[in-house]
Design brief:
single chain, two-stranded antiparallel ribbon, mainly beta
Length: 299
């Protein structure tokens, strides 16, 4: 995360219109029934999403988890989640460059390193777990544009972006409703919050952005920040809650940052989002030690 001067802008300040197709996707998210959720396993963890990946560029089946199940239950001295306390430790990795920017197989740039981010990883305890997850009914903080780039990461070949594009990551934090505060003076929400990014390489390749399942501009238009006045109403409007899919990654460089909830864990790349279709009563037990299911399995 680069917090340099002039490189961060609130996404809502960008006057960029949503395309017709993006608007259509929003209507589906807002009003359509996108399918039923998979049955919860006996340990309170859903084995997999009944719909699979919402992004056609991702050929993985996600495991449905809560933010708390990703983070684990071991806070560090600053109040954020440790790497070793998560069953997803070490997160996705890559042979070169940065795994958080690794494109999945598809219309990839020249020099892209095969095979792309794995659907499963072997964690630090020797367990095979899904690295591709789905999280339901969370709220988000402000959207920011940062870390601009004009070339692909080495893991994606290192060539220039098409048409001279200069693209940013679009970042935000998502959190369990009711846990909006994570700061050096109040760490109440830190173990219930995780960082999330629309990646600039994924935008350059057309995997995210307009006309896709991970369009940050559509999110800015359709889903208010949890701090917005609309999301302070009772009952809270449904547009204030989202479901997301993406890969679990540990960013060591950001592990002590307040804006990163004092933890390196993040959903990066984010691969898809939608207005939440989960009911307010939908919940997942925060029991990270039992999360050892592979996609398609049950407890």
């Amino acid at each position: 995360m680069n917090l340099g001067s002039g490189r961060i802008r609130h996404l809502t300040d960008l006057k960029i219109p949503i395309t017709i197709l993006s608007a259509a996707l929003l209507l589906v998210s807002l009003g359509g029934d996108l399918g039923s959720f998979s049955t919860l396993a006996s340990n309170g963890i859903a084995a997999a999403s009944s719909l699979g990946s919402w992004n056609p560029n991702v050929n993985c089946t996600p495991t449905i988890v809560s933010i708390e199940q990703i983070l684990g239950n071991q806070p560090n001295s600053m109040g954020g989640a440790t790497q070793s306390g998560s069953i997803f430790n070490p997160g996705i990795t890559s042979p070169v460059g940065s795994a958080k920017r690794w494109l999945t197989p598809g219309t990839t740039p020249q020099g892209w390193v095969s095979p792309g981010p794995p659907c499963t990883i072997t964690n630090a305890n020797g367990q095979v777990v899904s690295s591709f997850v789905e999280v339901h009914r969370v709220q988000r903080s402000y959207l920011l544009n940062e870390d601009y780039a004009v070339i692909y990461d080495p893991v994606n070949g290192g060539s220039s972006y098409p048409s001279g594009m200069n693209l940013s990551d679009t970042t935000t934090n998502i959190f369990t409703p009711g846990y909006t505060t994570c700061s050096s003076t109040n760490t109440t929400g830190c173990m219930h919050t995780i960082h999330m990014e629309f990646d600039h390489d994924w935008k350059a390749a057309g995997y995210c952005g307009p006309n896709t399942s991970c369009d940050p501009y559509a999110m800015a238009q359709a889903t208010p920040s949890a701090y917005a006045s609309n999301c302070q109403k009772t009952p809270v409007p449904s547009a204030c809650f989202i479901d997301i899919q993406g890969f679990v990654y540990w960013d060591q460089d950001s592990s002590s940052d307040a804006i990163h909830s004092f933890s390196g864990w993040e959903i990066h790349p984010l691969t898809a989002w939608r207005i939440s279709t989960a009911s307010p009563s939908f919940s997942l037990a925060a029991n990270p030690s039992s999360l050892s299911l592979l996609p398609g399995q049950s407890g």
